[in-house]
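Exercise 7. Given the encoded structure of a 92-residue chain, write a plausible sequence.
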């Protein structure tokens, strides 16, 4: 009535998954550690500390200072903000 079927071991999916993982890992190692990923030596002029002001002056831009804010701000036009809907109750 019942026949004993021998279950065949199939390693196909495991082999494919391992091959894809190995290819991905090898690709990452090549991309991250290839000869094109070495730090480039730059001249000292590149590392000179420059500010935006220095860069603007270098190209001939006119630099004008920002006007300072007044000590007292004028009253804002329009209605005052409303009271909050649920004021915090005072603690007695």
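Solution.
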């Amino acid at each position: 009535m019942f026949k004993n079927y021998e279950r065949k071991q199939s390693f196909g999916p495991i082999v494919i998954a391992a091959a894809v993982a190995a290819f991905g890992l090898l690709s990452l190692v090549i991309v991250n550690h290839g000869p094109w990923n070495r730090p480039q030596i730059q001249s000292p002029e590149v590392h000179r500390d420059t500010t935006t002001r220095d860069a603007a002056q270098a190209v001939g831009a006119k630099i004008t200072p920002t006007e300072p804010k007044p000590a007292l701000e004028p009253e804002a036009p329009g209605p005052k903000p409303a009271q909050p809907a649920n004021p915090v109750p005072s603690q007695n």
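Remark. The mean pLDDT is 78. Students should compare their own answers with the one above.
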